[in-house]
Design goal:
Elements: H1 2-5, H2 7-14, H3 31-35, H4 48-55, E1 69-74, H5 88-97, E2 100-105, H6 111-120, E3 127-129, H7 138-141, E4 145-146, H8 161-169, E5 171-172, E6 175-176, E7 179-185, E8 188-192, H9 193-198, H10 204-209, H11 215-225, E9 233-235, H12 240-246, E10 253-256, E11 259-262, H13 267-281, H14 298-301, E12 305-310, E13 329-333, E14 345-355, H15 361-376, H16 378-392, H17 396-411, E15 413-414, H18 418-421, H19 423-429, H20 435-439, H21 443-469
Parallel strand pairs: 1-2, 9-12, 14-15
Antiparallel strand pairs: 3-14, 4-14, 5-6, 7-14, 8-12, 8-13, 10-11
Helix pairs in contact: 5-15, 15-16, 19-21
C-alpha cells in the first residue's frame, strides 16, 4: 500500500498548476473528525500579473455565475497550504464562477468509511479524489458515486486527448463515474547527471532525444554502473515494477466496454516480468531487504544508486538534496518497451468522483471545467512553469523535460485498475507482480498461483456490473 498512499503528494505534480496537497495534516481517524468542516487555510494570492492573466482566460457563456460552495472530502486540501502557490483553477473558480471549496478532512485509511457515513446520513459531500485509482469500478458498483454526465459533456474539445481517453475508461452503463481532467507522468526515472558523467555513462536525456531510451539501454546503464560488492546498484524505489509493466501498453487489469479484463496471462506481462527477473538475477535492484524495506533516495546524490523511479511529485519538494545539487538533478520518463507498437507511459491522473447525492453537482462540474481550462490554456502552463522554477528550483532542462514527458504521456497514457476492482483482487495481485523483481521468482509460477482466484473474483464482479448497469 505504500506507493498508493504517496499519491497525496503526487497530486501536486499532476495538477500542473501547483495545488498544494496536505495529506500530512489529515484529521483523526474517527468519523466525527471527518464530518466536521474546518476553515480552509487562507490562500496565497497570485501576484498581480498572474491574476490578470488568469482573468483573461475565457470560460465561455457560463462565466460569472454564482455556483456556491463545493464540499471536498479528502485527505488533502484543494485550497493551498500556508506559503504554497495558489492554483490557476482555484483562481478561475473563485473569480469566474463565484465558487468556493470547503475542505472536509479525512484520512487516507478512513476516507471511504467516512464517505459512507455521510452518504447514508444524508450529508454527502460533492467531490472525492480518484487519483489513487482505487475508486473505480468497485466503489462505483457499491453505490458511493454518481455519474458526471448530466453536468459535464465529455465530447467537447475541453478535454486533452489523454484525459478524454482515461475518462472514457471510467464508464459503467455508458456513464462516466470519474472525471480525469489531466494526465502527467505516473513515474519518472530521477538521476544525478554528475554521477552519470563520472561513471562514463551517456545522459538518459540525450538517449531520449536520440530515440534510444528503452528497456535495453536502461538495463545496460544499470549493468555498467552496478557493483554490488561495493554497494552500488542500478535502481531503487517502490514505483518501478507496476510502472515498468505499463510501458508495454497492457495493464494488469483494465475496463473495456464496462467490464473488467485481466491481463495476467498476456504475452506483454510475461515479457515484462521476465525482463525484471533478469534485472534481479544481475543484482541490479537495490536489495530492499538489506535496508529494512525502506527506500534510500539519498543514495542517488551519494553516487551509490543510479536511478530512483518515482512519481514526479518527488521533485515538487523544497529540499531535493536526496538527488544532488541544483543543476545535477534530472529525470526522464520510464524507458520505452522496444517490442511495443508505441511509446506507452504510466500515467498519473488528476481525477475526481462525484459523490452520491452530491448537494452541488453543478458547482462540482464548474470546478472540473476550471481544471480543464487551467491545463489547456497556455496561461496555466506558464504560471506552473514559473512556480516550478521559483518554488522548487527547477532548471531549464528540467522544465523542458517536464513538457516532453507530459506530451509523451498524453499521447499514450496507461493506467491500471487492479487497485480499484476490490480489496480482495488488490491483495491477490499487488505483491505478486513484484516477486520477479524483489525475490527473483519465476513469473509463470506466480501467475499460475493467483490467476484462478483472480479470474473467479472478476467474474463475480462483472456479473454485478451486468445486473446493475446493463
Amino acid at each position: 500500500m505504500k506507493n498508493i498512499k504517496r499519491t497525496a503528494a503526487m497530486l501536486a505534480a499532476i495538477a500542473v498548476i501547483g495545488t498544494a496537497c496536505s495529506s500530512a495534516n489529515t484529521a483523526s481517524t474517527d468519523t466525527t473528525a471527518a464530518t466536521t468542516t474546518t476553515a480552509a487555510t487562507e490562500p496565497k494570492v497570485l501576484n498581480e500579473e498572474d491574476a490578470k492573466a488568469v482573468g483573461e482566460i475565457d470560460m465561455g457563456e457560463e462565466e460569472n455565475t454564482n455556483v456556491g460552495t463545493v464540499k471536498w472530502l479528502s485527505f488533502w486540501d484543494l485550497n493551498p497550504a500556508n506559503g504554497k502557490p495558489k492554483s490557476v483553477e482555484l483562481e478561475l473558480f473563485e473569480t469566474k464562477y463565484g465558487g468556493k471549496i470547503e475542505y472536509i478532512p479525512t484520512t487516507y485509511e478512513t476516507r471511504y468509511s467516512d464517505l459512507s457515513v455521510q452518504v447514508l446520513g444524508g450529508t454527502s459531500p460533492d467531490l472525492f479524489p480518484a487519483a489513487d485509482l482505487d475508486t473505480f469500478p468497485g466503489k462505483a458498483i457499491a453505490g458511493m458515486f454518481d455519474p458526471f454526465d448530466d453536468y459535464l459533456d465529455f465530447n467537447t474539445d475541453e478535454w486533452t486527448v489523454g484525459a478524454k481517453k482515461l475518462s472514457d475508461m471510467h464508464m459503467l452503463g455508458g456513464k462516466h463515474y470519474v472525471s480525469v481532467v489531466s494526465t502527467d507522468a505516473g513515474c519518472v526515472m530521477i538521476y544525478n547527471r554528475k554521477v552519470v558523467e563520472e561513471n562514463g555513462l551517456e545522459d538518459p536525456a540525450d538517449l531520449l532525444e536520440q530515440g534510444k531510451w528503452d528497456w535495453n539501454t536502461f538495463k545496460q546503464m544499470c549493468m555498467d554502473f552496478s557493483d554490488p560488492d561495493n554497494g552500488k546498484y542500478g535502481f531503487d524505489g517502490w514505483w518501478f515494477e507496476i510502472n515498468f509493466l505499463l510501458t508495454t501498453g497492457t495493464p494488469v487489469m483494465d475496463v473495456r466496454d464496462g467490464r473488467i479484463v485481466s491481463h495476467l496471462m498476456s504475452d506483454e506481462m510475461e515479457r515484462a516480468e521476465n525482463f525484471m527477473l533478469d534485472l534481479n538475477r544481475n543484482q541490479l535492484p537495490l536489495p530492499k531487504a538489506e535496508f529494512s524495506w525502506v527506500e534510500q533516495p539519498q543514495r542517488v546524490s551519494e553516487g551509490l544508486t543510479l536511478f530512483y523511479p518515482c512519481g514526479i511529485w518527488a521533485l515538487y519538494e523544497t529540499d531535493l538534496s536526496n538527488f544532488g545539487e541544483q543543476g545535477d538533478i534530472m529525470f526522464v520518463p520510464m524507458p520505452r518497451d522496444p517490442s511495443a507498437d508505441a511509446y506507452y507511459l504510466p500515467s498519473g491522473v488528476d481525477a475526481y468522483a462525484l459523490c452520491k447525492a452530491a448537494p452541488n453537482p453543478e458547482g462540482a462540474a464548474a470546478f472540473m471545467r476550471c481544471k480543464l481550462a487551467a491545463v489547456k490554456d497556455p496561461t496555466g502552463q506558464e504560471i506552473a512553469e514559473k512556480q516550478y522554477r521559483e518554488d522548487y528550483g527547477w532548471t531549464d532542462d528540467m522544465v523542458d523535460m517536464w513538457y516532453k514527458t507530459k506530451e509523451l504521456t498524453n499521447e499514450n497514457p496507461v493506467i491500471d485498475f487492479y487497485a480499484g476492482v476490490s480489496s480482495d483482487v488488490y491483495d491477490l495481485v499487488h505483491n505478486p507482480i513484484k516477486d520477479a523483481s524483489y525475490n527473483g521468482k519465476e513469473w509463470s509460477t506466480t501467475r499460475d498461483e493467483i490467476s484462478g482466484a483472480v479470474d473467479g473474483l472478476i467474474s463475480e464482479i462483472n456479473d454485478q456490473i451486468a445486473e446493475n448497469f446493463g
